[in-house]
Amino acid sequence: MTIQVELPKQLEEQVVRAATRARLSVEDYVVRVLAADQDAAGGTRAARTERADALAMADYRAWTAAGCPEDGAMTMDQVFG
């Protein structure tokens, strides 16, 4: 199966750099990352929690990089207890 997606330029650059560091083609790197994510999604509670934390942190970084305000916002501890 072939899946094509359009990535934001910054994400594309990050993926290419990560694949290069891992000495993998971009395709192989993306396949490995997605496979690991799917394994974690169906894994133990600890694996699912770690995955959720990683996804939340990625969203948080995107939010702050976009210049969104943090004043008065809940902390990560308040959100995830």
Description:
The model has no long low-confidence stretch (mean pLDDT 86). It contains four helices and no strands. α1 (9-21) crosses α2 (26-41). By secondary structure, the chain is mainly alpha-helical. It is globular, with a radius of gyration of 15 Å. The protein has helices at residues 9-21, 26-41, 45-65, 76-80.
Largest sheet: none
* Shape, per Cα inertia axes: globular
Rg over CA atoms, rounded to whole Å, is 15 Å
Order of helices and strands: HHHH
Terminal-residue CA separation: 40 Å
* SS class: mainly alpha
What's the short story on this structure?
With 81 residues, the protein is mainly α.
Secondary structure topology:
Blueprint: H1 9-21, H2 26-41, H3 45-65, H4 76-80
Helix pairs in contact: 1-2
Please describe the structure with a list of short key phrases separated by commas or semicolons.
mainly alpha, 81 residues
